Amino acid sequence: MTHSIAVSRVLGVVVVAALVAGGCAPAAAPGAPPAAPVRPTAAPTAPAPPVQALPRVETPTPAPSRPAPATPTPASRPAGEQPRHGGILTAYESSEPTSLDVNQETTIFTLQNQASVYNGLLQVDPIRLPDRVITGDLAEKWSVSQDAKTWTFTLKGDVTFQDGKPLTSADVAFTLDRMKTGPGGIKAPFKVLFEAIDKVEAPDGRTVRVQLKRPVSYFAVLMAHPAVSIMPKHILEKDQHALEQKSLGSGPFRFKAWNRNVSIELERNPNYFKKGLPYLDGIRWITLREPATQVAALRTGRVVFGGHGTRGLSKREADLLGKDIPGVQISRYSTDSVQYLLVNTRKKPLDDIRVRKAIFNALSQENVINTAYQGAGFRGDYIGPGEWQLPQAELNKMPPYRGPTPADLDEGKKLLAEAGFPKGLTLEMLQPHLYEPMTLTVAADLRKVGVETKIRVVQYPVEWLPLVTKGNYDLSIGPTVLALYDPDGYLKNALKGDSENYTGESSPEVDALYQKQTSIVDFAERKKVADQLQLKVWEQRGHFPTFYVMYFQAALPQVKGWKGPGRLRDNFRYEGIWLAQ
121 Cβ partners below 8 Å, 6+ apart? Predict the structure, then answer.
């Protein structure tokens, strides 16, 4: 039986609307609204602890009458249109990835062009977008134990890597351990999210058993993340860095070439286990760094696909393309993408909390959204709008969220004077090369309290990442794509020693509250601690969101079989796309 998890998202909240309990009960029908917030049960007489730590979790209900199909169905495209094989999809990428190893990378620049080389245990079903339904990818079926701490996956039996080697449970166990431990000095950016895994067993070639230390609310969503792609053990156990400059997986497309600063090219995997897919002969990701060049490439047909994952189109760009190109497909999608203002707390005078408070007294999320992004974005705290958001009364105390008042600006000037800067001060601010409008808007805000900025433009992520990682900056815009809408994912960058703590923030109270909330299963109780954690992070004034991102994407009329994703990262496989000419 094909299992699936229906997932909805309202203002950033990912809600599992039906929890698969495998042999205990089939999945709920996709899109079914939650009837009541009840604890999921594995058997009628023995309720288990809730696996999903969000407000609404349903008891599993009978299986859907329409299981998730492995290939596009006639219902997924207009009548009369039949997919055709062939052609190269051309798309732009606005910056090169630092490496092609999806397990190691957190930037969208790797995931957008490499997720289609791989498969995960689970996926967000591309057929049912924009509804978010988690279904099996490599997993043929799966079950969850009564105490919600053991997940057992059965793999499909006909899957091979692109070098012909079979993909087995040993590869899955190897990958999950790799993402948890970062062996051989590789990066493990999702390490915190994987810490709840106690052990992964592979009792036979098709069975994977994941034993958790505690119930994990986000585990199914995590297994559907494109970074959690299953890697070939037979290659990486010899050299953990072997797939950083090339890639090899089981997905619909295989690596062909990486022409530095020019393009990344993929070609069709003729032995893909989903028969008949993909339709395309390949994909060419062309590096186009400047927004004007990207839009011009769409207008001239140099590329036929743009804005998904890499620099999303602005609202104005999308509106003009929609007006000027008959039949162009414009998709709008929400993201787990946030742009921070980062303050290096390790450098003088920014080690003085008074200086940092003055800076954040001047920041305005509304200014950034309206001035730099034509209203295409939304305000939020450290976790963003949704069920995890702070109470409105607390949000209204934060100048960046509610907008600085004259009193906030006066206080900022006084704080700078108390810190020894009665006439203000000048700081260098890093501007990732894609983010000029936002950087200029933030700089104008800071000027209102007497902070002048010298803007230094750097390539993102290639130049930017080493600078912020080593603390060689004063202020910076910090683009980040979060793994999950969950406190664990959104707040780990405030932990001492975290790989994405670029500001040098260090608070034992923050670390303790983080560890406390991550072990709480009950949503209401966890929310109380998560609120305390957010407020404690705010006290540090090391970083704060400038806004949360809304993206626009364009596909020219000849691109068929494409569904705009409900959220960023939900549809990076591209296996169902075909070209009409």
Answer: 136, 137, 138, 139, 142, 153, 172, 208, 223, 224, 228, 230
